[in-house]
Write a structure and sequence with these properties.
The longest helix is centred in the last third of the chain and has 21 residues. α3 packs across α7. About 0% of the residues have low confidence. The chain has a 10-stranded mixed β-sheet with strand order 1-2-3-5-4-6-7-8-9-10, with helices on both faces. The protein is globular, with a radius of gyration of 19 Å. It contains 9 helices and 10 strands. InterPro entries: AB_hydrolase_fold, Hydrolase_4, MAG_DAG_Lipase. This is Alpha/beta hydrolase.
């Protein structure tokens, strides 16, 4: 029996703890947390959204839930194991040695959402979640019935992490070193400069969240976790078949800085958007890529102008998804600038 409890986000939000048993990475008992938005008195639609966060993140974007609700979707979000609501003091934040371990909570969350709504499910993910979800869908699509047969209608990826940013040698020699150290010393922290510029940009922009669950400079990176991510990147680059149409939203530019300045508010200060564009075609099926001028790394935490553009592009794509029908397959990649005709 499922027992929903009040969530920290207040009225209309509930949470459900999903027991996952013993951690395969040796950190004791683990859980995930499913959050739902269910406004009082609203007629519950059959179709739903399931949202998955990124690294150093958890679900707090109430305006995103409310926007999807206005478009006729029930909204659910998943805090993965050792993240946000699901993390305990014994857990290394966000630590996994294999991204496929997340299949357990993703499978269960999808089952629960489908059981509660009875309709199709749209998947939405940000950053590292935008890598985790396609890998899961590729595995799911290999099972009888595929992803569409499990009621998944499409995927929206918000600045997905498709490759390792930084100099080219990090993606070559660096990845070899990460692979070795990730096997031998998985919980060792990677020496790196910690920047809080993106976090300061979000807070300066008025976005409020729990700094214990989402520190301004991020959680430390471990070799084992980054090894899992690089192995996921390699799988993506070989080509996936997620089985449903996808929308990719990203900023038009990337920039890093040692200290915050207002220009950081209008770029992706975390990932290289050129890599997102380069690897987007690896998802398979029908892919639409829309660069949003002036967007932050989390496109849905952008300043008001780019945020409005992102929601307009999202709604336009959702209308097309409804008209297209998720059963029609067409392997193509489309790119347009926000505001261009569909």
């Amino acid at each position: 029996m499922t027992t929903w409890q009040p969530d920290i986000l207040g009225d209309g939000y509930q949470q459900l703890v999903l027991p996952l048993g013993t951690d395969p990475d040796g950190e004791g008992e683990i859980t995930a947390t499913l959050v739902r938005y269910q406004p009082a008195g609203d007629e519950a639609p059959r179709r739903a959204v399931l949202y998955v966060h990124g690294f150093t993140d958890y679900f707090f974007q109430q305006h995103l839930a409310e926007h999807f609700a206005s478009q006729g979707y029930r909204f659910f979000a998943l805090d993965l194991r050792k993240c946000g609501r699901s993390r305990t003091e014994n857990h290394t934040p966000h630590f996994v040695t294999d991204l496929a371990y997340y299949d357990a909570e993703l499978d269960e969350a999808l089952r629960l959402v489908r059981a509660e709504t009875g309709g199709d499910v749209l998947l939405v993910a940000h950053s590292t979640g935008g890598l985790v979800l396609p890998l899961w869908l590729d595995r799911l699509n290999r099972r009888p019935g595929g992803t569409a047969g499990r009621g998944i209608s499409g995927v929206v990826l918000n600045s997905p992490w498709f490759d390792l940013q930084g100099p080219a040698y990090l993606r070559n020699v660096g990845t070899v070193a990460i692979d070795v150290l990730g096997r031998l010393r998985p919980k060792n922290v990677i020496p790196a400069q910690k920047l809080d510029t993106y976090g300061v940009s979000l807070r300066t922009g008025g976005w409020s969240y729990d700094l214990d669950w989402k520190p301004l400079a991020g959680f430390p990176l471990t070799f084992g976790w980054l090894r899992a991510v690089r192995r996921g990147h390699a799988q993506l680059h070989r080509g996936l078949d997620i089985g449903v149409p996808s929308l990719i939203l990203r900023s038009t530019a990337s920039r890093s800085a040692p200290e915050y300045d207002p220009a950081i508010d209008t770029v992706d200060a975390v990932l290289d958007v050129r890599q997102i564009a380069r690897w987007a075609g690896c998802l398979g099926d029908r892919t639409t890529i829309v660069p949003i001028d002036g967007a932050r790394h989390d496109v849905f935490l952008s300043t008001p102008g780019p945020l409005d553009s992102a929601f307009r592009e999202l709604d336009r794509w959702l209308d097309g998804l409804d008209n297209h029908g998720s059963s029609t397959r067409n392997s193509s990649v489309q790119t347009r600038t926000a505001g261009d005709p569909a």
